[in-house]
């Protein structure tokens, strides 16, 4: 078994963990949910949940990683042999996520290349996105390049790969996010009826709570949406934070690092809304707030094209930012898998683990690509959505396995090894952990109940 490396400092760990959290979900899903769920109402609920629900799960997983010095595959078994199965469950999640995430990463790369080569106007034409994803060769080529980039970083290891890359990319990513957000607030447009819409108006639409038509049922739905977004936005229940936590030194100030990760993720999620919602509002009104790929790959390119010459440049900056976010997230997903292979009884070294997973992920990602042409079919999921291979993989991993893994983690920490074990690990360096009482109540009672409700909603029970 390879000697376990450690992050060179807390900055490297925080940027790597934040990079994992800041992914495609922050950039397209957060703005959509905020726009749909009452703007500022969603933001307030999200921030409250980040400081309670998110804090609890992030703390538990990072502490488990540092306490055991093991990957997600083996960490749970170290805590309690009867819970070894949870390690396998947590390891299956990133294994399912990586292939389809790399396919979407390939889509982002395709759009970045289109804008870099001056074909941003073409990317905004009707049918461009559909024609691309239904073609047979190009999506696979783009996915291959994206997957290869991610594998190279992970192959280089914890220090030369993950930490070094995160220290370079994450500051650039933050600058791009802030820059685009500021630009989004400066734009304006006069529609055919003479009405002027501005970015500032779009910001107000985003941040001011809209309580029109709010009922108890609607409020509950907003809470569940915010919790669902926070759930995978913070990379919990994927084994990622356990893997990264295992590389944290015992003398590191863990309470401070956890707080910084919370702040970084929440700020970037908020700024993602500032980037997107004002721009969509100016050029498309409230009708332009649509979810998923249609927002990032259809609506936004049209907005960039309508901006004139500067639109192509903005498109380059935006998709570069999205690509960086996608790579840092995919890195963490791959590392969760690779660390498990290294710690398994097969004793793979890092190079072997990366190469094996590269070929497995590539084959599965090809199946996802073919799901839009030769293998296309429609399947109705229990939550009511209709999808094909990518959607099924996403549903199984995000909506079923992750809530189950998180519920089990809450039970293990809250009732088997007890919250005190985690609190002692967090305070090992002598730095006091804040919100200890909150952590105990959340991990034992509130978080598992909320997660169970979220699971039932995913299963279409109500």
TrEMBL record:
Protein's name according to its UniProt entry: Neurotransmitter:Na+ symporter, NSS family
Subcellular localization, as worded in the UniProt entry: Membrane
Organism: Lachnospira multipara
InterPro entries: Na/ntran_symport (IPR000175), SNS_sf (IPR037272), YocR/YhdH-like (IPR047218)
Stretches that traverse the bilayer: 39-64, 85-109, 139-156, 168-187, 230-249, 261-283, 310-334, 354-375, 395-417, 438-461
Domain of life: Bacteria
A Gene Ontology cellular-component term: membrane
Keyword Membrane: yes
Membrane topology classification: Multi-pass membrane protein
Keyword field: Membrane, Transmembrane, Transmembrane helix, Transport
Main localization (coarse): membrane
Keyword set includes Chaperone: no
């Amino acid at each position: 078994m390879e000697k376990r490396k450690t992050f060179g400092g807390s900055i490297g760990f925080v940027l790597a963990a934040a990079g994992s959290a800041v992914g495609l979900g922050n950039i397209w899903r957060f703005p959509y949910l905020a726009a749909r769920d009452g703007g500022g109402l969603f933001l307030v609920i999200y921030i409250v949940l980040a400081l309670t629900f998110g804090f609890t799960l992030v703390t538990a997983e990072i502490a488990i990683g540092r306490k055991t010095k093991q990957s997600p595959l083996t960490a749970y078994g170290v805590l309690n042999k009867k819970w070894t199965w949870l390690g396998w469950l947590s390891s299956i999640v990133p294994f399912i996520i990586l292939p389809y995430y790399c396919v979407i990463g390939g889509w982002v790369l395709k759009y970045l290349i289109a804008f870099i080569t001056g074909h941003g106007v073409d990317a905004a034409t009707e049918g461009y996105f559909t024609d691309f994803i239904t073609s047979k060769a190009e999506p696979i080529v783009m996915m291959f390049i994206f997957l290869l980039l991610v594998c190279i970083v992970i192959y280089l290891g914890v220090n030369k790969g993950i930490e070094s890359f995160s220290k370079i990319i994450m500051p650039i990513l933050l600058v791009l996010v802030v820059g685009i957000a500021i630009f989004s607030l400066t734009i304006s447009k006069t529609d055919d009826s003479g009405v002027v819409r501005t970015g500032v108006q779009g910001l107000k639409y985003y941040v001011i709570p809209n309580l029109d038509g709010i009922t108890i049922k609607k409020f509950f739905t907003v809470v569940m949406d915010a919790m669902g977004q926070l759930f995978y936005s913070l990379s919990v229940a994927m084994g990622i934070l356990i893997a990264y936590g295992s590389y944290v030194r015992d003398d590191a100030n863990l309470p401070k690092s956890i707080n910084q990760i919370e702040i970084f993720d929440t700020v970037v999620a908020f700024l993602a809304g500032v980037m997107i919602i004002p721009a969509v509002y100016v050029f498309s009104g409230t009708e332009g707030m649509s979810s998923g790929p249609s927002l990032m790959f259809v609506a936004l390119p049209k907005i960039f094209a309508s901006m004139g010459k500067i639109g192509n440049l903005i498109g380059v900056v935006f998709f570069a930012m999205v690509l960086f976010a996608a790579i840092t997230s995919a890195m963490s997903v791959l590392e969760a898998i690779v660390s498990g292979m290294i710690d398994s009884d097969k004793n793979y070294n890092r190079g072997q683990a990366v190469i094996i997973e590269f070929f497995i992920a590539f084959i599965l990602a090809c199946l996802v690509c073919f799901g839009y042409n030769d293998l296309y079919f429609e399947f109705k999921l229990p939550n009511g959505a209709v999808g094909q291979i990518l959607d099924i993989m996403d549903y199984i991993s995000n909506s079923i396995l992750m809530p189950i893994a998180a519920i089990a983690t809450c039970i293990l920490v809250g009732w088997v090894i007890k919250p005190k074990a985690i609190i002692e690990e967090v305070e090992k360096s002598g730095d006091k952990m804040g919100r200890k009482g909150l952590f105990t109540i959340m991990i034992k009672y509130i978080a598992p109940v909320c997660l169970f409700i979220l699971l039932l909603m995913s299963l279409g029970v109500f």
